[in-house]
Specification:
- By secondary structure, the chain is of the alpha/beta class.
- The longest helix has 15 residues.
- It is globular.
- Strand 6, helix 9 and strand 7 form a beta-alpha-beta unit.
- A six-stranded parallel beta sheet has the order 5-4-1-6-7-8, with helices on both faces. It has a two-stranded antiparallel sheet with strand order 2-3.
- It is built from nine helices and eight strands.
- The relative contact order is 0.18.
Amino acid sequence: MKEFDVYLFDFDGTLVDSYESLVLVFEGAYSAVNVKVPEGYTLRLMRCPLYVGYEELNGPQNEASKKLFGDEIIRLLDDEEVLKATKAYPEVEETLKELVNRGKKLGIVTSNNKKHVREVLRFLGIDESLFSIIVGNEETKKHKPNPDPIYKGLELLNVGKNGVCYVGDARDDMASAINAGVAPVLVDRKDEYHGECEFEIDNLTGLLNY
């Protein structure tokens, strides 16, 4: 694994296991607009922009329904039951602390909203100060696989593209990294994408093995 100076991280599926929690969020929000989420479809919804999934599931196109859906997503993300269903991957905090000890800069660039990310970090006891920046979905108009979220992270850190990687668990994460001109690092915990990315690890401890 190559060594980098700056490590930008996706959040859901990369730093935290949020699958069960997002099942609750998506099922609740889609139910509010009378759309049923097919069994097993939550993983797809986690890995695409919010309204791309909404279009795929034929969500109502009137503005009132779209607003209701978006409001329910935000409301449910902060529900206590949802927070309790979110888990940290066991190696995450130790790996992050070691990277910081080695003088690396860390950041989160996510399609989730920043408030919820901070709530989850607090709930799981992960020290937010390990991260120099957090970029949420409210900070750019375009989202992954567009490069703008990563560009925003680079801007906030005041760094160029050299020596920067983006660590994520999905193809859109890798595409966003490539489009932004930074190195993609794929966390392939379930061996779904073997051989698709130059830098592949099966958990975050792989970042420490130079």
